[in-house]
Design brief:
3% of the residues lie in helices and 52% in strands. It is mostly beta strands. It has one domain: Roll (Lipovitellin-phosvitin complex, beta-sheet shell regions), CATH 2.30.230. Strands 1, 2, 3, 4, 5, 6, 7, 8, 9, 10, 11 and 12 form a twelve-stranded antiparallel beta sheet that branches. Strand 8 and strand 9 form a beta hairpin. The longest helix is centred in the first third of the chain and has 4 residues.
């Protein structure tokens, strides 16, 4: 499940694996009292290739001295492949090769609109960082709970951004209504650190083919490590976030949506500045197919250090 981002261009990098729910009437939930274990079944996913579409829209508005200063809108869609490799050795880690295949984006701000599609080529402009990752595989090694242990194929400086690529699942089985928490801290230049507190709740278990687990999410945020200043006050004055996802019995996310809103107010001798960030994300599974008929991904070059 995707995590909210404090910057315009980072949200599409951190989320993997989702798909729309089937257009059928929901099945009856599992009986109350039965427990469900959530985990990534790499033994059953090995040899499969999943294709995802991740679509994100962000809006950033600014207010200065009580007057609106315009709004910047960014829309992005990334087509992503995940190749699940056989578990090797005795470490029990799953291995997933993640390869972005297409990146589309649009930036709208007062006075100009910038569009980019990696399929057409050309200058990527403000999207160069994400466009440069197209067709470049990254290998993740992770536990059955989704904790990323190793990252290969990117420079050392970029590896931390992949640590939360998969949703970390609880180690213990859950009853319906049980929840678990995750903390994600994102540095924000000159403002401090945004600490996101995610609470996930198992809402329903639906039998079928495949069986589905429905999970809701709520997000709370606080601003930490604000640089001290005798003349400037920086506060998080509004925040809201919620979403949901559907997992199958092997741990693949079958559907994921997220909406979040942040408002940061900066007061100083020169006046008051308010910045508002709204993010909406939807992830969709396009298909799952046998990876045996696919050419292996090209080995990544030595990462720059």
């Amino acid at each position: 499940m995707i995590r909210p981002s404090p910057t315009l261009l980072s949200a599409a990098l951190l989320a993997l694996a989702v798909a729309p729910a089937d257009a059928q009437a929901p099945a009856d939930p599992a009986p109350v009292g039965s427990q469900t274990r959530l985990e990534y079944r790499f033994d059953r996913l090995a040899g499969k290739l999943a294709v995802y579409s991740i679509e994100t829209e962000q809006r950033v508005g600014q207010e200065l001295h009580g007057k609106p200063q315009g709004e910047v809108r960014t829309w992005m869609r990334q087509t992503l492949e995940q190749r699940f490799e056989p578990v090797r050795g005795g470490d029990g880690l799953g291995r997933v090769v993640v390869t972005p295949r297409r990146f589309e984006a649009r930036l709208e701000e007062p006075g100009r609109t910038v569009r980019y599609d990696s399929k057409d080529g050309g200058a990527a402009g403000p999207f160069a960082a994400l466009a440069s990752k197209v067709d470049k595989p990254v290998t993740l090694e992770l536990t059955r709970q989704g904790e990323v242990k190793n990252v290969r194929g990117v420079p050392v400086s970029e590896r931390p951004s992949y640590r939360d690529a998969f949703l970390e699942l609880p180690e213990q089985p859950l009853d319906l209504g049980d929840s678990w928490d995750r903390l994600d801290r994102k540095p924000m230049e000159m403002l401090g650190t945004l600490a996101y507190h995610f609470t996930y709740r198992l809402d329903a278990v639906e039998p079928g083919e495949p069986p589905l687990r429905r999970v809701s999410a709520t997000i709370r945020a606080r601003l930490e490590d604000v640089p001290p200043s005798p003349t400037t006050s920086i506060r998080l004055t509004d925040q809201h976030g919620q979403g949901g996802l559907v997992l199958d019995e092997d741990g693949l996310t079958r559907e994921s949506t997220l909406e979040s809103r942040l408002e940061i107010t900066v007061k100083s001798a020169s006046g008051t500045q308010v910045q508002r960030l709204t993010t909406r994300t939807r992830q969709t599974l396009v298909e799952v197919r046998d990876a045996a008929n696919e050419p292996p991904p090209a080995p990544p070059g030595r990462p720059r250090r």
